[in-house]
Specification:
Chain lengths: 265, 56
Amino acid sequence: MRKLWLKEGWGCRYPVSDPIESRPMTTVTTPPRRAAGSRRGVGWFVRGVIGIVGELMITAGVVLGLFVAWQLVWTDVVGDADQGVAVTQLEQSFQVPQEAPATLEPAKIGKGFAIVRIPRFGAKYAKPLYEGTDRLTLQKGIGHYPDSVMPGEIGNFSMAGHRTTYGKPFNKVAELKHGDLVIIETAEAYSVYEVYEDLIVLPTQVEVVAPVPSRPGEQPTEALMTMTSCHPMFSSRQRWVTHGRLVETIPRAEGLPLELLEVSD
Amino acid sequence: MSLYGTIWRLLPGPWPVKAVLAALLLAAAVYALFTWAFPVMEPYMPGSDVTIEEHP
């Protein structure tokens, strides 16, 4: 039996078999509801508005769900890929012979200048370190507090990193044990720090990144390191802070001893 | 009166074509959200104030 697709109001279509075809088209194309124009009053309008508002609210819910997926999954996918590329580029730039690398110049905000290796996070763990701790810099990798010293120097070399999202460089920061190594690779040297302390503080407790941690204003005598990240995970109510002290500076020419990348326990 | 009903009605062709076009529209919407909308939204969402400097 041949079928026709005939249009009914409200976007609804249904197959109609031959007999109807013989009817005058107007009786089919004009929906009954429209014919009864007097009944299409305020109630129809209110129902329509409520329907659209409902659709918009469902849409908002779906968009929020997508946002969470974007933040927790997609920024990691993109972040891991981008940060891997950044590490490769940094490694290549370090291969180029450096001219007069007497002291590390303060880098420009947003510039990548080091690779962070943390054996506890895996032998292949390598993340780019950028100057600055603003929102956009931290989306690219680990950020270096611009007011803190450069790796290996006397003072408190301080870094901030995302614990979740954007490649989550400091995702496992709470798994670091005292004695674990944090290796900062620059064009000149490998600065090897050993973790000795971890703290949970409020975001306002900026004294953890003071030159002498927790003693702002004091003159530093030791080369220390601080890692800050969000705590608890998926929140920014507190900060996880890890302190380390410099145990070794290995010139780049000597290379990084592979046993440093091994974790004993 | 229905937003998505109207879109469905405006899409041309038989229903399989409509379904493909609707999927394309959905994909375009998700792409726009991921690329432009969400990065802009993020600072205003909870749990996104990452830097210490923002809390003097």
